[in-house]
Write a structure and sequence with these properties.
By secondary structure, the chain is of the alpha+beta class. The chain folds into three domains: 112 residues, DnaJ domain (Helix Hairpins), CATH 1.10.287; 69 residues, Urease metallochaperone UreE, N-terminal domain (HSP40/DNAj peptide-binding domain, Sandwich); 72 residues, Urease metallochaperone UreE, N-terminal domain (HSP40/DNAj peptide-binding domain), CATH 2.60.260.20. It has nine helices and eleven strands. The protein has a four-stranded mixed β-sheet. The protein has a three-stranded mixed β-sheet with strand order 1-5-4. A two-stranded antiparallel sheet has the order 2-3. The longest helix is centred in the first third of the chain and has 17 residues. It starts with 5 loop residues before the first helix and ends with a helix. One of its GO terms (cellular component) is cytoplasm. GO terms for molecular function: unfolded protein binding; zinc ion binding. It comes from Vibrio renipiscarius.
């Protein structure tokens, strides 16, 4: 019985490149592979036919010979490759990175297992895999995040509650992670354990805020100091100093003190921004109200 044209077998045209041929072959091989059609002799013959076509059309020299002489290029009549059987073991594994077919399940003739061909692991020792990483949110005080600290935290690790000593680096930010290698989920097939990751969340502070590496401090002054000028004491973490308030200072005015902010994990230090909040007096006495009334009349 005469052979079908290789291009027709794969459903491609002579102008198609190797990429198109491989794509067509993969689709047909998945459909007709004996592992998917057990006991179907027609499917087995069809698989042999498409594999033979694939071997010829993806080999530059063989394809050139075939385009010139047709099937006779390989039966010895045209001085072609001659005599080689194209029902061998190459082709499918070559395309998908395998190392040669393995005979499986009674199919003989060198057909590889369908799942094995597509690297899904049947008949092959599974590779070691790293275990899953475990993540937990770890909430720390504002001051500890800025200055650093050491804490003990109890976490569920592989079904057990375990205590872990945690060193909080000075300057760590919200969302940054502290990693503990090998404290996560167990490895698979002898692989290493995963990691434990603590995601940092920082508690809010009564009067301090953080903007990247800058510290923002709100300081209250009375309206007389704001109007006439004077000084206010600033307390930030371990730092205490006097800040001069110019006359006529308005609420919301900022004073920058360079290099008094947060030193981050790279050793870069930000600035301190002191925001002035002018307080309006309440519960005034009659005398105080009279004085303010007189002052208002002068404005």
């Amino acid at each position: 019985m005469s052979k079908r044209d290789y291009y027709s077998v794969l459903g491609v045209s002579k102008g198609d490149d190797v990429k198109d041929i491989k794509k067509a072959y993969k689709k047909l091989a998945m459909k007709y592979h004996p592992d998917k059609n057990p006991g179907d002799a027609t499917a087995e013959d069809k698989f042999k036919e498409i594999k033979e076509a694939y071997e010829i059309l993806t080999d530059t020299d063989k394809r050139r010979q075939y385009d010139q002489f047709g099937h006779s290029a390989f039966d010895g009549s045209q001085g072609g490759f001659g005599g080689r059987s194209h029902h061998g073991h190459g082709g499918f594994e070559d395309m998908f990175g395998g190392g040669g077919f393995r005979q499986q399940g009674g199919f003989g003739g060198g057909f590889g297992g369908f799942e094995d061909i597509f690297n899904q692991g049947r008949g092959r020792q599974a590779r070691p895999q790293k275990g899953q990483d475990r993540e937990f949110t770890f909430t720390v005080d504002f001051v500890d995040a800025v200055q650093g600290a050491e804490k003990v935290v109890e976490l569920p690790i592989n079904g057990e509650q375990k205590k872990i000593n945690v060193k909080i680096p000075a300057g760590i930010k919200d969302g940054e992670k502290i990693r503990f290698g090998g404290k996560g989920g167990p490895g698979v097939n002898g692989g290493p354990a995963g990691d434990l990751l603590l995601i940092i969340a920082t508690r809010s502070h009564a009067f301090l805020k953080r903007d990247e590496d800058n510290l923002i401090c709100t300081n209250h002054v009375d309206m007389i100091t704001a109007a006439l000028g004077g000084e206010t004491e600033v307390n930030v973490l371990d730092s205490r100093f006097k800040l001069k308030i110019p006359a006529g200072t308005q609420s919301g005015r900022k004073f920058k003190i360079t290099g008094k902010g947060v030193t981050n994990r790279k050793g870069v230090t930000g600035d301190l921004l002191v925001v002035i909040q002018v307080d309006t007096p309440t519960n005034l006495t009659d005398e105080q109200k009279a004085i303010l009334t007189q002052f208002q009349a002068t404005l």
